[in-house]
Design goal:
Length: 632
């Protein structure tokens, strides 16, 4: 076991490291109040920044999810590092020599630190081998693609020799154990022991945002190599392919500065873009672009600035590239940015384009980007014969769901006009097809929503559960359109209910639960809130909901709890809360009056006179209550 790091060293490293610089490697931070920085929390999804960093005090705090602590705690949460590993990582970054008590040595470090050390040593070994005689084929491949020795050095490229144990023997000579090399993904185990995983291949070191080597990508060079064209490090304690972006170490600062990222499809495309001056290019490593990649980029892009952030995809023109493009379109609403597609002339990717036409052509390719919506629509249209009426109508039907998926209320009608022009159809015809597609999407969403019987019974009565029947489906809701004024008002009420729980009564909450919310997600959240506060009225509603509410509601809870209210100070908060709650109760009263009037119309006034009178009195009481609320 490693010796304990001296406490004085723990404090010294923390004092020497600027916590804002460390967190800034993962989160785009902007000035907030005096001595404070803010950004999007990396530990939960949010669109409004609730993550705060105070460099002078050396701590961070997210007011959305509650996470907070010092720089060591941040690395623990962000990278899964132990306390000791966090100290060692930061000490290494500033060149500080740690002292271990109880006879501990450097060789006794934790497995994660040892993997990073082994990777760094392997990268240095591969880099040295690229200059040797055996690596001529690798150097020629690079030169044929326009990458000279300087380019290879810039990206720390290397060569893995053909032999079975070259790297393994080298690293074991440096004190690494075979099991450590296997854990790091550098070696595999066979009947005769450990042997090199990468053999006879061109090597790309893959680094994280702090520039530590976490894995490798290797391209086949020889015909007698029966392996795949590209071989990547398997998942290890430091390398998780769903969270890795090649080039992020070089691109991170310009991504944050320019609020733009270019997503390409391979290592050489990243190299070509950076060498051509497109310094925000990154690529996935042997896996499709997914949710974890989106979260990483959203944190770097931030949500401030005078212009929207941009995500620009490049895709190959083949079937796989088209499939990737449509998958990116499906995820486009998850970005806190505008999404585009850049297509090279003749379908060339950035690497081939740079080789054939130079750096300027690569820059022009990126600048000539097209909106991802337009690209996706035209992909749908391309499958039809537009010379026929039937083909144009079929194309419009195929494009309609894509247009219906555009959430921006200003963009959708603009694209309806565009599609009508592209297909030589009447705008109203296309609009009608889009509306049908939108209704179908809403219908599908509602069909997937679990019906909650609590909405049909009094809020203080729990539905019976006899233990029979299938397990309920995972809760889901239709999309929330925050451009809708009713939805915005409902969200304000949710924000007050969560953030200012001392400014409303339980009876008021019960009325709001019954008739206060029209969107299913808001209605479900209010029922969950009533349930947890009925159990303990003094509970922190946000904490209780995050611990108990269905997963489908947690993003809304985070957003509502982190939203800054337009009130500062206890008196202003009280006035704001009362105003929001009163307006919501007025809406409830109006709905209660509609219910009573409907019931009044169904009654027999001659034979049910007492009930008629009671309802009429109820209407009078509701009207009086409404006037009082509006006077406050």
């Amino acid at each position: 076991m490693a010796g304990r790091i001296k406490q004085s060293d723990v404090e010294e490293v923390k004092a020497r490291v600027n916590i804002a610089d460390v967190i800034g490697e993962y989160v785009a931070l902007k000035p907030a109040s005096v001595g404070s920085l803010k950004g999007l929390c990396p530990f939960h999804g949010e669109k409004s920044p609730s993550f705060n960093v105070r460099p002078s005090q050396g701590f961070f705090k997210c007011f959305g999810c509650g996470e907070g602590g010092d720089v060591y705690k941040f690395l623990n949460l962000m990278e899964g590092l132990s306390f000791t590993e966090s100290i060692e990582k930061l000490a290494a970054s500033i060149g500080y020599q740690l002292t271990y008590e109880d006879g501990g040595s450097e060789q006794d470090r934790g497995s994660r630190a040892r993997i990073l050390e082994a990777n760094a040593a392997a990268a240095a070994f591969f880099s040295t081998q690229l200059g040797g005689d055996e690596a001529e084929t690798a150097r020629k491949l690079l030169l044929d693609r326009g990458f000279d020795a300087n380019a290879a050095a810039t990206f720390s490229l290397g060569y893995a020799p053909k032999g079975w144990n070259n790297l393994t023997d080298h690293l074991r000579g440096l004190g690494f154990k075979a099991e450590e090399l296997v854990t790091a993904g550098l070696a595999s185990l066979g009947e005769r022991g450990a042997f090199d995983k990468f053999r006879g291949r061109l090597i790309w070191p893959i680094r994280d945002s702090s520039s530590a080597v976490i894995g490798f990508g290797a391209r086949k060079l020889y015909e007698d190599d029966n392996g795949p064209k590209y071989l990547n490090t398997s998942d290890t304690p430091v390398y998780h392919k769903s969270q890795v972006l090649y080039g992020i170490d070089l691109a991170k600062r310009d991504i944050t500065k320019q609020r733009r990222v270019v997503v390409v499809e391979g290592y050489t495309d990243v190299m070509a873009c950076h060498l051509a001056g497109v310094t925000t290019a990154v690529a996935t490593c042997g896996t499709a672009f997914g949710d974890d990649h989106i979260r990483i980029l959203n944190r770097m892009l931030g949500n401030g600035g005078d212009t929207p952030a941009e995500v620009i995809f490049t895709f190959d023109p083949d079937a796989a590239g088209q499939k990737a493009a449509m998958r990116a379109f499906a995820d486009s609403n998850k970005f806190s940015a505008l999404t585009f597609v850049a297509v090279g002339p003749d379908g060339l990717d950035p690497s081939d384009l740079r080789t054939g036409k130079g750096d300027e052509a690569v820059r022009e390719m990126i600048e000539n980007k097209r909106p991802l919506f337009e690209f996706a629509i035209k992909q749908k249209i391309a499958n039809f014969d537009l010379a026929t009426v039937e083909g144009r109508i079929g194309a419009a039907r195929a494009a309609a769901p894509v247009v219906a998926g555009i959430r921006d209320v200003a963009l959708r009608p603009a694209y309806i006009r565009e599609v009508a022009g592209w297909l030589n159809l009447d705008v109203n015809e296309v609009s009608s097809l889009v509306e049908i597609a939108a209704k179908q999407a809403r219908s599908d969403a509602v069909a997937n929503t679990r019906l909650d019987t609590a909405s049909t019974v009094p809020v203080d009565v729990e539905p019976a559960d006899d233990g029979a029947g299938p397990e309920p489906k995972e809760l889901s809701f239709p999309p929330i359109n925050m451009n809708d004024p009713i939805t915005r008002v409902e969200r304000q009420v949710i924000e007050v209910l969560l953030q200012l729980p001392g400014h409303y009564q339980q009876s008021e909450l019960e009325r709001l639960v019954r008739l206060g919310f029209s969107h299913p997600a808001h209605a479900a959240l209010s029922r969950e809130l009533h349930r947890v506060r009925a159990e303990n009225w003094n509970v922190d509603p946000t904490v209780a909901l995050l611990a108990q509410a269905p997963a489908a509601l947690k993003d809304i809870i985070h957003d509502a709890a982190a939203q800054q209210l337009p009130a500062a100070g206890a008196e202003a908060e009280a006035r704001y809360a009362r105003g929001v709650i009163n307006r919501a109760l007025v809406n409830v009263i109006n709905r209660e009056k509609v219910e009573l009037l409907s019931l009044l119309r169904r009654l027999d006034h001659d034979n049910q006179a007492e009930q008629v009178a009671a309802i009429q009195q109820g209407l009078v009481d509701l009207e009086n209550e409404r006037r009082k609320l509006q006077e406050v």
